[in-house]
Design a protein that fits this description.
This is MerR family transcriptional regulator. Keywords: DNA-binding. By secondary structure, the protein is mostly helical. The chain is about 60% helix and about 5% strand. It has five helices and two strands. A hairpin with a 5-residue loop joins strand 1 and strand 2. The longest helix is centred in the C-terminal third of the chain and has 36 residues.
C-alpha cells in the first residue's frame, strides 16, 4: 500500500510515517517510480509505534523494543536483552509514577469541584 493509504488506515500523518522510516521504525519498498510501498503488516506496526509513543517512550527506545514484539498482536518475542528489559522496567515505573500523580490531581480536582458545589 502507498503512504497515503497507510496514513488513512492508521490515522497517522504521512510526515510521521516518513519520520518513522527515517528512525528505522518502519520500512518500505520503493516502486520503480520511487513511491513507497508498505506491506499489510505495516498497519499493525504503526499502531504499535503510536501506542509506545503515547506511553512516553522515545524513538530510540522504541527502535530497540520493536524487534522484541510481534506486530500482529503486540506480544513479546524471545529476543529482548537484559538491558532492554531493565530500560523498559524503568519506563514502566515512570509511567506508574505518572499515573499516581494523575490520580492525586484528579482527586484534588474532585475535592475542589465538590467544595464549589456546596452552598
Amino acid at each position: 500500500m502507498r503512504i497515503g493509504e497507510l496514513a488513512r488506515r492508521t490515522g497517522v500523518s504521512e510526515r510521521s510515517l516518513r519520520y518513522y522510516e527515517q528512525q528505522g521504525l518502519l520500512t518500505a519498498e520503493r516502486t520503480p517510480g520511487g513511491h513507497r510501498e508498505y506491506p499489510e503488516k505495516a498497519v499493525d506496526r504503526v499502531i504499535r509505534i503510536q501506542e509506545l509513543y503515547a506511553a512516553g517512550l522515545s524513538s530510540a527506545k522504541i527502535s530497540r523494543l520493536l524487534p522484541c514484539m510481534r506486530d500482529s498482536d503486540g506480544g513479546p518475542s524471545a529476543v529482548a536483552t537484559p538491558k532492554l528489559v531493565a530500560d523498559l522496567t524503568a519506563e514502566r515505573d515512570r509511567i506508574d509514577r505518572m499515573i499516581s500523580d494523575l490520580v492525586r490531581s484528579r482527586d484534588t480536582l474532585d475535592e475542589v469541584i465538590e467544595a464549589a458545589r456546596l452552598p
